[in-house]
Amino acid sequence: MTDRIREFLHDEAAGGLAILAATVVALLWANVGPGYDGFWHTELGPLDLHHWVNDALMALFFLVVGLEIKREFVDGRLQSPRAAALPAIAAVGGVLAPIVIFVVLIAGGEGAEGWAIACATDIAFAVGLIAVLGDRVSEGTRVFLLAVAIVDHIIAIAIIAIFYAEAVSVLWLLAAAVLAVAVKRLPRLWIPLGIALWIAVHEAGVHATIAGVTVGLLLPVALGERVEHRLHPWSAFLVVPLFALANAGVDFGGGVLGDALGSRLTWAIVAGLVIGKLLGISGATLGALRAGGTLPEGMPRPQLAGVAAAAGIGFTVSLFIAELAYDDPALVERAKVGIFAGSVISGILGVLLLSVASRARRV
């Protein structure tokens, strides 16, 4: 494992603790403290605080994701088609199975627009979970999880751009295309051009965070590595925890929890994250191995199920998609309860399966 991958994994693992802390604060604030919703809906210029976090700050998170995707495919573990094939197949399986489970359970009922909620993996929480287990999880397993999560993010970004865009303005979209070309040709001016691209994408009706991914993919690798080195700690320790603080607060009073537990939407998300990720990633990977694929060096096959379960921690991107999918606050709250429950169950299941695999390996 290279030093740069170790640094990325370390920041993500530590960032997972920051997200957890922010989530706890958000839940306490929403249930015990005053004015949670009122604070985040405070108008500040053209947007309220909630949208400044979700639309603007999260663009930095997706910028870092774009930079990491670019680096891994150009100069990393995914640069060769053979190396990229297995985690790509695993990620596709881990996206399709949750979607199928969700669609079947919802059966066209209320909340069907959120079909993509359960298909995302939270890198920070999943990597943080693996880090807690220390050397009981091999380096090859960590790299496999990271590669699967990166491809998972590529698919999630495409879903957000294609299926959760508003009415698209062709003129603003053309302006965004021109600015993207400018970023490619004049990478040293990526900051002002990136801001202009964010505005154009926002006005085009496509979610503005796509601008962050676009800039990350367009920057040259050498410059991108320096930018990622500087921005990744800010993304891991400020941006994503702020996102959790602004979005994870669910007031469980007033029958909200009971309503969520009685909702088909909540359980469709739980099933998608817990069962869909486990079966989708494990099944797709085992099928690829039978067809001649190979696991990363040093990754024991018994650890596959634990990694697949851990990938069901869908927190950050799942919350993000839920906010895009629903206008009805009641549906958003039911989705959040499902995301919380599914992510916690997936995390516990991942630890149990990886611990069992570790003990079996040492016997």
Q: What does this protein look like?
A:
This is Na(+)/H(+) antiporter NhaA. One of its GO terms (biological process) is regulation of pH. It is found in: Cell inner membrane; Cell membrane. This protein has helices at residues 3-31, 36-40, 49-75, 81-106, 123-132, 139-163, 170-185, 190-204, 209-218, 221-247, 256-261, 264-290, 304-310, 315-325, 329-362; strands at residues 43-44, 47-48. The mean pLDDT is 88. The protein has a single domain, classed as Na+/H+ antiporter like domain (Na+/H+ antiporter like fold, Up-down Bundle). Helix content is 76%, strand content 1%. With 363 residues, the protein is mostly helical.
Rg estimate, integer Å: 20 Å
Roughly what fraction of the amino acids lie in strands?
A: under 5%
Count of distinct strands? 2
Number of alpha- plus pi-helical segments: 15
Report helical residue fraction: over 70%
Give, in spatial order, the strands making up the sheet with the most strands: 1-2
- Helix-strand sequence: HHEEHHHHHHHHHHHHH
CATH homologous superfamily classification: Na+/H+ antiporter like domain
CATH domain topology: Na+/H+ antiporter like fold
- The chain-level structural class is mainly alpha
- Biggest beta sheet summary: 2 strands, antiparallel
Give the N-to-C terminal Cα separation. 26 Å
